[in-house]
Design brief:
Blueprint (H helix, E strand, L loop, with lengths): L3 E5 L4 H12 L3 E6 L6 H9 L3 E6 L5 H15 L4 E4 L14 H29 L2 E6 L11 H21 L4 E8 L5 H10 L3 H10 L9 H11 L11 E4 L6
Parallel strand pairs: 1-2, 1-4, 2-3, 4-5, 5-6, 6-7
Helix pairs in contact: 1-8, 3-4, 4-5
Bound molecules: nicotinamide-adenine-dinucleotide.
Protein name: 3-oxoacyl-ACP reductase FabG
GO molecular function: 3-oxoacyl-[acyl-carrier-protein] reductase (NADPH) activity
EC number: 1.1.1.100
Length: 249
């Protein structure tokens, strides 16, 4: 039976790219996102490539929905071996214009979402004495104008990663994080629209200030996640790997 990977926020973007890569690596994949119907393209793409995937509608901020989602995944796919906490949102604004709702939503999706999903996943992983968890931080953790909420959440993810690596290590569970730089997705295209430039211009500007002189694609993150959940990374835990073309050097 295939090992099972759960990827949150996997209907599109980095999550969909990661789910496709893990399916190609041989995992049966649960595509978790807010709207189950929106997961169809990601599931179909995996099936068309010969892989196994199911769509699971779940708001990662809702304790009951998360518990039900993991029960369903374990029942349908047989276990939970890998969890990629990837679901995310932006609500950018300078501090004086940032609403409490914008603060709360960003904290909730990134931090509470990762907490709730990991708490469910570890039940299966601790029992089987093995598991791999990859959280999603960001270069914005290091500070980003207009992103007080997001930066705090993404640095929080790094603290969560280190702490859970300590707690879960004795059970054979590795917990790491990836911190993407600029990756071409609907999230970065939406930011371009918000600041009033075309996606192409926005990408070109980002590439200019990146040592490797390009922006990233979802596959750039998926490649590193694939390594972190592989046996080759079995002695790596508590780490955050920046995958940003050198943007924050
Ligand atoms: N794109 C980048 O440049 C970049 C850079 C650094 C970090 N990241 C992080 O990578 C992750 C993926 O980003 P992306 O660019 O693919 O974004 P995206 O907006 O394209 O995809 C995010 C997905 O998360 C889902 N989602 C949002 N809230 C959810 C919730 N409460 N429950 C379940 N699913 C939810 C969305 O529906 C969407 O499908 C995010 O955590 C983001 O913060 C992205």
């Amino acid at each position: 039976m295939s090992k099972v990977a759960v990827v949150t926020g996997a209907a599109r973007g980095i999550g969909a790219g990661t789910a496709a890569r893990l399916a190609a690596d041989g995992f049966a994949v649960a595509i978790v996102d807010l709207d189950e119907a929106a997961c169809k393209d990601a599931v179909d793409a995996i099936a068309a490539a010969g892989g196994t995937a199911i769509a699971v509608g779940c708001n990662v901020t809702d304790e009951n929905q998360v518990a039900a989602a993991f029960e369903r995944i374990a029942a349908e796919l047989g276990s939970v071996d890998v969890l990629v906490n990837n679901a995310g949102v932006l609500r950018d604004n300078l501090l004086f214009k940032m609403s409490v709702d914008d603060w709360d939503l960003v904290m909730s999706v990134h931090l509470k979402g990762a907490f709730l999903c990991t708490r469910e996943a570890q039940k299966y992983m601790v029992k089987q004495k093995s598991g791999k968890i990859v959280n999603t931080s960001s270069v914005s953790a290091l500070g980003a104008r207009g992103q007080a909420n997001y930066s705090a959440a993404k640095m929080g993810i790094q603290g969560l990663t280190r702490t859970l690596a300590m707690e879960l290590g004795p059970f054979g569970i590795n917990v790491n994080a990836v911190a993407p730089g600029f990756i071409v997705t609907e999230m970065t295209d939406a930011t371009a629209a918000r600041v009033g430039v075309s996606p192409e211009e926005f990408r070109a500007e980002a590439a200019k200030i990146t040592p490797l002189r390009r922006v990233g694609e979802p596959a750039d993150i998926a490649n590193v996640v694939s390594f972190l959940v592989s046996d080759d990374a079995s002695f790596v835990t508590g780490q955050t790997i920046y995958v940003d073309g050198g943007r924050r050097l």
